[in-house]
From TrEMBL:
This is Subtilisin-like protein. It comes from Hypoxylon rubiginosum. It comes from the Eukaryota. The lineage of its organism: Eukaryota, Fungi, Dikarya, Ascomycota, Pezizomycotina.
Amino acid sequence: MHLLFAHEYRSPGAYVGLSIRVAGDGDPDTVLAQLEAVPGVLSVSPVYEMFLSDPNIPDNSTGIANPFLSYADPPAMPGVVPKPGESLTSTLEMAGVDKLHQLGIKGKGVKIGIVDTGVDYRHPALGGGFGPDFKIAGGWSWLADNGTAVESDDFLTTCYGGGHGTHVAGIIGMDPLSDGDRTLNISGVAPEATLYIYRVFDCATNGETTDRVMAAMLRARADGVDIISMSLSIQESWQDRADPLLQVASRLVDAGIAVIVAQGNSGSGSKYDPQLYRTSTPAELTSIISVGSVANRDTPLVYTFTDSQGTTIPYAALWPIESPEGLEIYSLDSGCSSSSQWEEAISLLEDQGKLNTTIIAFPITDTCRYTGTRGCCSSRSPPYLMGLYSDTSDPYHVDYEVASTGFYGDGSVQYIAVNANDSARLLANMNATEPGQYRLFFNDSSYSSPTKLVGGKMDYYSSFGPNYLTYDLKPQISAPGGGILSTWPLGDQGYYTILSGTSMATPFISGCYALVKSQFPELSVGEILSLLQSTSTPIPWIWNDTMIAGTFQQGAGLVNVYNAITYQSRVSPGQLLVSDNSRTSYGAVNITIENHSDSPRTYTLSHQGASYSEPNPPNNPVYSQENQLPIYGSAEFESPTVEVAPGESALVSFKILPPSSGVKPERIPVFGGFVKVTSDDEEFSVPYSGPPYSLYNAEYWHIVNTTSAVQPQLSYKFGDTYEVITELREVSSSSPYRSLIGRDQYTRGYRIDVVPANISITPSIFGFDPAEPYSYQPSATAPPTSILGLPSYGTLVNSTDLLSPSTFNWPSGTGVEAALDDGTEYALGPGDYRWLACVLRWGGDPNLLQDYETWLSAVIRLVDGPVSTPLAGLEAA
């Protein structure tokens, strides 16, 4: 084993330790044990790789064809201007940021650290440099463009593959550009905040690991930041609360630094796919603010061309095509054709001398998005591509999608998108024109920003919560993240680009947090989060706008930072967990209402239901139903109104009641909703999530009682078949047996014990008819041990691990052998026995019998020698 030093951490109060790389072929568990045995070592944890957004999302930077494309001497930005009355302020308007900017509130005095790919600080909208007198004041880099480990205070990243960090920085802090014919009147959320950049990815978005992220977070702490924005994750949660990364994050929050993280992009576009519990790490940590993504209200940049029939047709693109002399169209049947078919098309146009004067068009359908057209540019790049929408059955496929800068070929390919209605007009005009005569004329560089169909709704890819098993609300809040225009490294087709993901929503919330922090610097991380959550706007579900989308998808909803700052009242906490309060109480919660105005206020309380969902656990068959259903809980208030004097607060206690029908506890569902608090022109919404039933009082055994099947069941083999034991059976002590004892809920306690047949217990479920008379034939030996205060001959199963809902044969074998407390196993002698199966209720005490759901089998009469025929009812009166 060869150890290589990686990082040393000397941050008392946050983390002290080091990370190493282990060279060699040793088994990880063996290496871990060897390191733990080193004198002075307190703990050892693995280092994990971390990632940016899912590359399958349209508009995503990780799909860069040439990630090392870079411009040391970039050309000027293309000329564009807004059409009269048009602007690029849609995302700011969605969240009330624009109104705060008009008041001069822009985040001044707040420091934000960005852990990402580095930044092209040459960008004029980002200040054109870095240092104490710039918008970007400092930072650090641990990686070079090619992934080589470095230690440098220069985090300049000019490669397109590393453009993600530049985009994130722009969402937080870019300034509008207004330079004559180069006008992009788009601002970041907190353009007066001070930025610190920590580069932990190379140009291929590789290299980020949990130990490097820890180093970045601790350096940000040393730099005195107020906020750390991290658009990154481990997509599969490791559920290890002792991991150093989570420890560091938690301690930074305790020290007053907000850690804001992307919820993740593992959501599905299908309304039928089960989606719960997809929170990534470190977003799962309760003290971290995790962020969901909302689609931009508008498509940022839409230009127009005029065809040879005189029809003006809009198209979406990053930059407009400049071709007043016109382009011909070469049409493909499918954009997802093989690379060889693309090569044939490109070769044909080259041979005709038309490649540079032709735009290659292909249909965009539900099954072939523009992201499937990468085969176009494997060796040669056409200068122009056009996606013609032809299938609008999915609402997420109706709006324009714009390929991110560098997505195609060498990075110089211009891609434009034409929507379904305009595509139909274009094709009709083309078909009505003589072959070779139809042309498109591009001579307009002014842009508009039309409204999207899905604008303001949750993006399909935004990962659902809540936290696995604990039901803690994740994401906590949502922000514009779909179709976001922001800064990009300088170069051809660069300067700006459009990306989508919770990666984009995260810096937006970081900017909103900075605006609040600038006005209320005395507030804690939790208090600012509560302000942002309680003043957010719940979002309807995209597939049914009469239903509010689940809080497990949107958290508190769409942020409204103007309300968070200007409201005269406050409601906390910003989110509620609804579950068991005790073995006999469910759904009791509290909120506090503060009146910061100069006059008394009356607050009205109400409830708004949000959707219910099921994750389809392993115990259930695959089923087809929508993943969000209109099954709502309700609220029970002592009084519908609360009076609060000026400068005073009131604690309000009430109950959230689960849905009265439609709940299927065996499917481990989740429900949610909002507690509404209104006063005058102020409206607050406090989201909640939880199981829509009492976890403690749920049915734990999977029960089947039909003519063809029984569960739970114990079976013994007689001849070639197994017989289910539902009444007294005489069996050989060496006979094969099996069981089918399923659970419908999670548990941390599952055991089966062999007990005397005359045991004095009333189980939750009888595996026999208790009214049937019976004469007990005892074993020759007394029970040698006890279980939960009951006599026992030993244990067959005793698991204290977390067990998911499941049904399978366990235990099974030949000849029952029970285990004593010291682990000794022995064969039972002749006599009458039963199986006592116990499953621990969630939240129950493993030492209390009453905290288990129990099942007691029929009598098993063990005898020496073979038994070829099942004999029922022996010794029956």
